[in-house]
Amino acid sequence: MTQPDFSPAADRNKQVILDVLRKVLPESGKALEIASGTGQHVAWFAAGLPQWTWQPTDAMPTALDSIAAWVAEQGLRNVRPALVLDVMAPQWLPADAQFDLIYCANMLHISPWATCAALMQGSARHLADNGVLVTYGPYLEDGVATSEGNLSFDQSLRGQNPAWGIRRREDVEQEAARASLRLRARYAMPTNNLLLVWSGALHQP
């Protein structure tokens, strides 16, 4: 069996993210993960939320073997085979593919800004009624002091690729609004990250 890739960051944050997902999600549903990466998150969440069916995806075909290895290692039966999915594609999946959760972690700051609009527009197409989009990662926020760690991280990202960088939460909200999505909840997470819950304007609590 392929040896799965390992991300120390994903290993550290998987439980705290799962704790929030348990608060905001119903007992069962269908989930689509965007930018699954190593597969550690989807394997952990699928084990922790066994009544949910999970569809992992990644833009990089090379990621699929690692995702499959994590799923196989855990013996999970509620995770579908991973798919190649590029958020910039005009069509992600068949139009009738609807999900109660779309989850995307640590993508916006390591991809061009255009992926934010694509994520919001694609999520709006594939969210079921009362479904939510959950994004996780570092953000800049108006009126909130930015940690030294995030400032250094942002400079490092832009040094690697000028199109990368930590995004302003307010800018992300504007792109969400263009897709008729609204910020429903904000959770402060360890190491200066945020977990944001987005839903359609008609589904605000």
Fold topology:
Elements lengths: L7 H17 L4 E6 L5 H9 L3 E7 L5 H11 L8 E2 L14 E7 L8 H13 E11 L1 E2 L7 H13 L6 E2 H10 L2 E9 L3 E8 L5
Q: What would you note in describing this structure?
A:
The protein has 205 residues and is α/β, with parallel strands linked by helices. Among the domains are: 1-19 and 35-75, no CATH class; 86-133 and 160-191, no CATH class. The protein has six helices and nine strands, in the order αβαβαββαββαβαββ. The protein has helices spanning 8-24, 40-48, 64-74, 114-126, 148-160, 169-178; strands spanning 29-34, 52-58, 83-84, 99-105, 127-137, 139-140, 167-168, 181-189, 193-200. A seven-stranded mixed β-sheet has the order 3-2-1-4-5-9-8, with helices on both faces. It has a two-stranded parallel ribbon with strand order 6-7. Strand 4 (99-105), helix 4 and strand 5 form a beta-alpha-beta unit.
Keywords:
single chain, 205 residues, alpha/beta, seven-stranded mixed β-sheet, two-stranded parallel ribbon, globular
Terminal CA distance = 45 Å
Widest sheet: strand ordering: 3-2-1-4-5-9-8
The portion of residues assigned to helices is 25-40%
Gyration radius from CA atoms, angstroms: 16 Å
Shape: globular
Question: What is this structure, in a nutshell?
Answer:
Among the domains are: 60 residues, no CATH class; 80 residues, no CATH class.
